[in-house]
Specification:
The chain is α+β, with helices and mostly antiparallel strands. The chain folds into 3 domains: 74 residues; 133 residues, no CATH class; 32 residues, no CATH class. It contains 8 helices and 9 strands. Bound molecules: iron/sulfur cluster. Iron/sulfur cluster (SF4) binds next to helix 6 and helix 7.
Length: 259
């Protein structure tokens, strides 16, 4: 129905700020801690004092983000084993039909960067991720990684580099302040490789999903602890089930796209 939340999920806010800070760090050499701190102050102002809870959550996220980025610099400053060829880009590319022609459906994704790894000499798409817990085995199946390789190849071409992108350099930052009782690793870098077959499979699935959802089909909510935990529509969704005034919530806390 085109609704979009006015208030942002605090986990997504923190991730956005860290992305902006790392983008400036790798793009123009700025201090990521200052970039993040300025970004958080601007967000607190933009939220306004009528959302005191959100402001307080953001101030907590600011402390956490600063600790994460200070730790990141302590871990990697001067130690990165790659050259940055490009930083954040939003890329659009038509998903191909099974015959290999461009369809009307665009794959749109943001790439955090394109790098050349010193150890392998290969190109990798860069992906900054903040996480609480991480199941590394999931990365083998993750379509997002596959699509980033496909879009990374497109980005490389636009930069005049005629080379395959080997995979994604996963640059993980745990949402955790360092401390004497913290023993888990706070950072995780992993090269996630993708081959041509994995790209074909992901694009074929995306194409047929587009074809299915492009029809006039009914979509029903499917409550699920993981999805609902992150869902911006959780309150109106709960209210709808209870027979309450979910439309009031949609009108009050969401904006609506024209199209
Ligand atoms: S809360 Fe969100 S994810 Fe969960 S069922 Fe409702 S709309 Fe779907």
């Amino acid at each position: 129905m085109g609704y979009k939340p006015i208030r942002k999920n605090i986990n997504l806010e923190l991730g956005s700020g860290i992305h902006i800070a790392l983008d400036e760090y790798y793009g123009s050499g700025k201090d990521p801690v200052s970039v993040f701190s300025d970004w958080a102050d601007d967000r607190v102002k933009a939220i306004g004092s009528e959302w005191e809870d959100d402001q307080n959550n953001l101030l907590e996220a600011k402390d956490l983000g600063i600790a994460m980025l200070e730790g990141y610099l302590a871990e990697y400053e001067g130690e990165d084993r790659f050259d940055v060829l490009a930083t954040e880009h939003t890329l659009k590319r038509p998903i191909p039909t099974p015959e290999g022609n461009p369809s009307k459906c665009l794959m749109v994704a943001r790439l955090d960067g394109l790098v050349r790894d010193w150890d392998t000499g290969k190109l990798f798409a860069m992906e900054h991720k903040t996480y609480k817990r991480l199941n590394e085995s999931w990365l083998d199946l993750d379509h997002q990684m596959t699509i980033q390789v496909w879009l990374g190849q497109y980005l490389a071409k636009t930069l005049g580099i005629e080379e395959e992108v080997a995979g994604v350099l996963y640059n993980g930052l745990r949402k955790q302040k360092p401390g004497p009782r913290v023993s888990v690793p706070l950072f995780m870098r992993q090269k996630v490789y993708r081959n041509a077959n994995q790209i074909d499979v992901a694009l074929t699935r995306a194409y047929w999903k587009y074809r299915e959802t492009n029809r006039d089909m009914a979509i029903f909510p499917e409550p699920n602890p993981v999805r609902c935990g992150w869902c911006d529509f959780r309150e109106p969704c709960t209210e709808l089930q209870m027979g309450g005034d979910y439309e009031f919530l949609l009108g009050e806390f969401f904006t609506k796209r024209e199209r």
